[in-house]
Each structure stands twice: as structure tokens, then as C-alpha cells.
Amino acid sequence: MQATGILNTLKKVDQSKTFQGFVIFVIIVSALSIGAHTYHLPPWLEQSLWVLDIAITGFFLFELIIRFMASDGIKSFFSKGWNIFDTIIVIGSLVPLGGSTILLARLLRIFRVLRLVSMVPELRMLINALLKAIPRMGYIALLMFVIFYIYGAIGSMFFANVNDFLWGDVSIAMLTLFRISTFESWTSIMYETMEVYPLSWLYYLSFIFLTTFVFLNMMVGAVLDVMGEETKIMREEQGEDSEHKADVNDEQHEIAHSQVATAEDIKALNAKIDRLTELLARKS
Fold first, then answer.
1. Tens of pLDDT, residues 218-254
2. How many domains does the chain have?
3. 0.70 cut: is pTM over it?
4. Which domain covers residue 108, as residue numbers?
5. CB half-sphere exposure, 132, CA atoms < 13 A
6. In this predicted model, what pLDDT tens digit does every residue of 152-191 receive, in sequence order?
7. Contact, 131 vs 138, CB < 8 A?
8. Are residues 95 and 155 in the same domain?
9. Which of 36, 70, 167, 224 could hold 11 in an S-S bridge, CB 3.0 to 4.6 Å?
């Protein structure tokens, strides 16, 4: 019974909005302390940041232990990818800040900022949507590569004599096309080739239309489609959680009501026993 009570207390602490908000605050403080290490600071402040880093690392380890103990066992805990992610981040933070490992330790501590993603449900939803959209985006990227390669080969064949630095071979031409797709001084490149090939503007405009307007919007559409699915799943999970909490509250109210009724029955029974005792005493 005592172990069950401790487990329920840990679950309440883990699910507490106040505790989760404090964890997010510590993550932000950790990010600020990491940024502060990049400045030239006085020795006393460096020492203070070192102590703060130890305290933050200890708190993250404590918070991870609470989440682990509040779960329904090892299998349940590590069945969630975000728990595995947080475990790796926290264990990586245990590398001591000192000696030959100081650069590695600071590098691993930078990734503690990513724990903010695992703590905020909306950020988790965005990352999940991005990961699930990667297969769709991969096919779009493959098609974009084909278009880049075709246009790069054409550009290298026609424009190499105009500017060998930008169109010397297909790989350099594809790099130039990437620059054009980002609209980085692309008009100067176009005007340079138009002096030799007046109709070369058709080459640039068709390429920009395909890559920037068509394929980029296809990328955005793929991500938005998956985000819509993830948002629906998150709302359903939140609805199930609220229904579960409502059921638990109803059960607790019923138990409390039955306890009150039982207490009243016991009082009535005690009153009857007292009366019977008084009658027996009078007869005797």
C-alpha cells in the first residue's frame, strides 16, 4: 500500500503543470548558461556557472528518475521515443566539465536545449510531423534533384563559354542553380547570359517556376498534411485523457459518497446499540 501511494504521488508530480513548467524554466536557464560560457567572463562568474551547471545536471537526473519511477516499468518507459531521447541527453550531460573532456562535455550540454522539444506537446507534434513528412519530402527532393541535374547539364552546355566559373561543369552549374533558386543575385547571372543568348531568360524563369513555386509548395503541402494528421491525433489523445480524468473523478466521488453513507449507517447502528444497552440496563 505504501509503495502504491508513493507511485501515485510520483505520477501526480510528473503530470503536474507546475513541475513541468519548472522543468521548462530550468531548460531555459541551462540554455542561457551555455550561451554565457561563450563570453569572456570574470573567474567568479565562471565558477558560479560551473556550480549552476552541476545543479542543473542533478535536477535533470532527478526529474528523469521521477519520470522513470512514475511509469509502468522499464518497457513502458522506453517504449516512448521521447523518453529515450531525454535519457540520452541527460546521460550525456553527466560527462564532467574538466580536463580533456571539457569540449565534449560542453558540446553534449548544448543538446540539453533540445529537451524543450520533449517537454512542450506542441513542439513534439511539430517534430513528429516533420519526421513523418520526411518520406514524402524525400520523393519531392528526388524529383527536384532530377530537375536540377537536367537544367544544370543544359546550363553547362550553353553557358560555360559565357562564365566558366558559374557554368564550368554540371556540378558547378547545379550549385549556381541552387543560388538562383534562393534568388541570390540571380538577375545578374541572367543578364550576363542574355548578352550572348537573348532568350536565355526562358531558361531561368522556367527553372524558378518549377523549383521555387511548384516544388517548394509541394514540400510545404506535405508537411502541412502530416501536421493536420498529428494535430488530430494530439486532440484525440487529449480528449481521451480528459475523459479518463473525468471517469476517475466520478469514481472518486462515488467512493466518497459510499464512505459517507457507510459512516452514517455505522452511526445509526451505534445509536441502536446504545439504546439496547440502556434498555437492558433498566431491566436488570
1. 888 888 888 888 788 777 776 655 555 545 455 555 6
2. 2
3. no
4. 2-119
5. 15
6. 999 999 999 999 999 999 999 999 999 998 888 889 999 9
7. no
8. no
9. 70
